[in-house]
Amino acid sequence: MRKGYITVFLSLSLSLILSLVFTVIEGARISAIRMKFECVSDIGMNSVLAEYHRELLRQYDLLFVDMSYGKGNPDIGNTEGHLWNYIQANLQGSEKSGFRPSGDFLDMWVESAEIVEYSIASDSGGAVLKRQIADYMADYPAGYLWEKIAGNAAQIEGSGLESRDVAGEREGYQARIDEIELPKEEVEEGVFEEIPLDNPADIANGTRSIGVLNLVADDIGSISTVRVPAAQYISNRSPMHGTGICQEAAQLTGMPDNMLFLAYLFEKCGYYGEEKDGSLLRYQIEYMIAGKDTDWQNLEQTAKRLLRWREVSNVIYILSDAGKMAEAEAMALALTAVMMCPELAEPVKYTILYAWAYVESLQDVKTLLRGGRVPVVKTSADWKTGINSIKNVKGSLSDDGGEGRGLSYREYLEVMLFLTDDHERTFRAMDIMEMDIRQTPGNEAFRIDGCFDAFRAKLSVTSGFGYHYEMERQYGFY
After folding, report:
1. I want to staple 446 with a disulfide (CB 3.0 to 4.6 A). Which of 301, 366, 393, 437 is the partner?
2. DSSP 8-state secondary structure symbol assigned to residue 449
3. How big is the CA angle at 153 (ends 148 and 157), to the nearest 5 degrees?
4. Distance between CA atoms of 67 and 451, rounded to whole angstroms?
5. At what angle do helices 123-136 and 422-437 cross, to 10 degrees?
6. Contact assessment for residue 352 and residue 330, using Cβ atoms and an 8 Å cutoff
7. Dihedral sign from CA coordinates of 438, 443, 446, 451
8. Residues 216, 361: Cα–Cα separation, whole Å
9. What predicted TM-score, i.e. pTM, was given to this entire model?
10. Which DSSP string corresponds to 405-434?
11. Which residues fall within 8 angstroms of residue 308, CB to CB, at 6 or more apart?
12. Is 475 helix (H, G, I), strand (E, B) or coil?
C-alpha cells in the first residue's frame, strides 16, 4: 500500500510539474514570437530604406527609395512586396509551414505587410525634398547668405531695376519724334523732300532684334544648344502623391531653409561659365530661372533680363550726369533736321541718351559673361562706353572681363533665382535631377515623384501554434 501511495503522489506531482513546464515553455514561445516579430519588422523596414537610390545620393546627397526599383513603374505596392520578402526571409521561411511539432519552435510567417502612409519627394510642393536638403546644408551659414542675397535683391528692387519700364520711356520719346513733321528742302525747282533725321540712336535700337547673345557672346558657336523633352519632366506633368506622413518630414521652418535651398542649388548645379560635368542641360541655374527647353533659350532669357536690369540702372545714372547729357544734346543739335526744326532737339537728345545706356548695358552683360563684375548702381568711374558707340554697337564692345567692382554673374543669378516663384524654382530643380539621373545606366525612366523617404507600415504575422499579432512601425530618413 505504501508503495502504491507513493506512485500516485509522484504521478500527481509530475502532472503539476509538467503543466508548469509546458506553461513556461508556451509563455516563452509567446514572448519569443512577439520579440522576433518586432526584431524582424525593424530589420525589414531598415532593409527597405537600405535600398535608397545610389545615383541620387552620389549626385545630389539625397536619400530616397525609388518605388520602381529601376523598372520605370513606381508604385508603393512594389515596396510592400520588398518589405514582405525581407520580413519573411528573417522568419526563416518563405511559405506557410503549418503546425509542425518537431519543426520550428515558433513556426511564424508573414500574413500581411501594408504600407499605409509614405512621403514622396515632391509632396507639399517639394517640401519633403527641401527638408532633406535643409538637413544636408545644416552647417551652411544661412544668416550670411540671407544678408547677402536678400540685400542684393533689395538693392535691385529698390532701385527700380525690376519694375521700371525703360522701354516704354524710350518709345515715348520716339513717338514724340514721329509726331513732328520733318523739315523739307527743295532738291529741284518745285520738288521738295524731307530732310532725313539720321538719328544715330536708330542704329543702336536696330540691333535690339538681333538677340543679346549674338551681340555679347565671345564665341556664339560655343554656346550649348541642347534641347530637352520638357513634357517628360515633373514640372510639366501631373506628379504622383504620397499619403502624407510626419510633419517634420515635410515642413521647412522658414526663410533660412529657403536660403539653404538656394545655396544647395548652386553647389549641385551648373550655370554659364561654371557648367556641371555630366549634366544634360549645361545651364541648369538659368533653366530654373527661365524654364525653357533649350540651353540657348535659357541663357538668352537670363541675359535679356540682365540687360533690362542694367539698362534701367544705366538710364538712371546717365540722366543724372550733366556731362553726358551735354554730349547727347550736342550730338542732337548737330543733326541737320534738328537745326531746321528745333522742337526735335529734346526728344532726339533723350533717344540718344537711352541708346547710349543700352550700349553700356550690352557692355555690362558682356563683362559679366566673361567673369567680370558690374555694380548695381554706377558712378562715372564705372562707365565704359563713349557716345559714338551707338553708331557701331557690336564693334564698340570691349573684351573687358576684369574683376572690377560690384556683383558677379553668379551673384546676379542668385538674385534672379531668389526672385523666382518658389513652386517653379523647386519643381524645375527636380526636373534637373530627373534629367541627370536618367543619363545613368538603369535609370532611364527615373521619376523623382516615384521616390519616398519615410513610411508607416502595418504588419501582421501568424504562427502555426495559433497566435496572431499586428503592429505598426514608422521609419524614414530624418
Report:
1. 437
2. G
3. 155
4. 6
5. 70
6. no
7. negative
8. 10
9. 0.88
10. SSEEHHHHHHHHHHHS-HHHHHHHHHHHHH
11. 161, 166
12. strand
pLDDT digit string (tens) for the chain, length 478 residues:
455 556 776 777 777 887 777 777 767 777 777 888 888 889 999 999 999 999 999 999 999 999 999 888 899 999 999 999 999 888 875 444 444 444 567 777 888 899 999 999 999 899 999 989 998 998 888 778 888 898 999 999 999 999 999 999 999 999 999 999 888 887 777 777 888 899 999 999 999 999 999 999 988 999 999 999 999 999 999 999 998 765 554 454 455 678 899 999 999 999 999 999 989 999 999 999 999 999 999 999 999 999 999 999 999 999 999 999 999 999 999 997 888 899 999 999 999 999 999 999 999 999 999 999 999 999 999 999 999 999 999 888 988 766 678 999 999 999 999 999 999 999 999 999 999 999 999 999 999 999 999 999 999 988 877 788 899 999 998 7
* Grid coordinates given for 305: 533680363
Question: Can you tell me whether residue 164 is helix, strand or coil?
Answer: coil
How far is CA 30 from each of CA 86, 106, 140, 466, 468, rounded to the nearest angstrom?
Answer: 22, 8, 51, 10, 10
Residues 6+ apart with CB under 8 A from 350: 173, 328
Q: How many CB atoms lie within 10 A of CB 190?
A: 6
Distance of alpha carbon 446 from alpha carbon 431, whole angstroms: 11
Burial of 160 (0-12, 13-18, 19+ CB in 10 A): middle
Phi, psi of 115 (to 5 degrees): -90, 115
Beta 108-120 vs 65-66: how paired, if at all?
Answer: unpaired
Give Cβ neighbours of residue 73 (< 8 Å, ≥ 6 apart).
Answer: none
Contact between 365 and 385 (Cβ < 8 Å): no
352, containing H or E segment: helix 345-369
